[in-house]
Amino acid sequence: MEVRGRSCPLAYRYQPEALVQPAQLEADILYVVGGLYGNPAALQAVLERADREPGGPPAIVFNGDFHWLDVDPDDFQAISETVLAHHATKGNVEAELASEEDAGCGCAYPEYIGDDVVERSNQIMTRLRETAGRFPALVGCLGELPNYLTASVGGQRIGILHGDPESLAGWRLALEAMEPGDPPVRRQVGWHGQPTTAADLLDWFRRAKVSVFACTHTGLPYAQDVADDGRRRLVINNGSAGLPNFTGTGYGVITRLSTSPQPPADSLYGISLDGLRCDALALEFDIAWWEARFAAQWPEGSPAYERYLARITGGAPLQLRQAVRDSVTLTYQRTDENPAFDRAI
Fold first, then answer.
1. Per-domain residue ranges for the chain?
2. How confident is the model over 207-253, as pLDDT tens digits?
3. Separation of alpha carbons 187 and 194, rounded Å
4. CA distances from 193 to 111, 167, 220, 226 (A)
5. Which helix (H) or strand (E) holds 306?
6. N or C: which terminus of the chain carries fewer CB neighbours within 10 A?
7. Which class does domain 14-344 fall in?
8. Which stretch of DSSP H or E encloses residue 79?
């Protein structure tokens, strides 16, 4: 029996070969922004970071779940209109807002995620649907967004996903699923199931004909490369742009892909692949403003308060070093202005 919040609608499913399509955009610098989760401060920070790019304005792709906690109508409208002015793909949140069927949150949560989490997510989606119902034209535009996108940066093909190479809401590219497994991460989330091996990744990369999978959806950021006949390919999951991602920090994470070999000053970790520079950037936003904005919409006792307040105020239970896998290199620079970086190591 399908369970709301755990089921995976057929419309979410595709195969890696779908990414063999011609690139929908070409750029020298590309930001991939997943999991804003309705945070207007994080969205503003993305735009301000783009304005500071020394090489000129980057292309920006919002790869899903830009809505979630934004039940305030003004926030929902502003985020929708801003995101739709750029390149974007659906996340499960946007897919469910535009769907006539009710799959709950559409998260396709695996079995190791507790029923309480699933139920709270379904309740959040119910309330968000009420807000979205005020904007049928915008919701219609969300429903027309693609499930995935192929980009080209310096001639390298990038597969931009929300979940994994087989499903909009897939969990096969979650940090906890990746081999070699990280025992503390797996214990923390209670992971069990089918691991994602190097052979799985290579099969997907070759079928999709891409060098990088840039994804989000599963909550914890990391970057991991894999050897493929003398070259390397990369999975980079930004976790969340709109929520803190590491212990004791207050910043989100976005992915930056560039033809310039120089790591940017706000890089946390990254790698160079055949002339393509790939970095996870720290997205600094006004965390105090976001906490207050969140609490105004989701007061104590609400389903989102129970689930997200601790992450907003203290980050996720993940150390920065745990996001750096295989040949990826830690690149952050310690500064007195950013002591939280050291707590996250």
1. 14-344
2. 999 999 999 999 999 999 999 998 999 999 999 999 999 999 999 99
3. 15
4. 8, 17, 17, 21
5. helix 303-314
6. N
7. alpha beta
8. helix 73-84
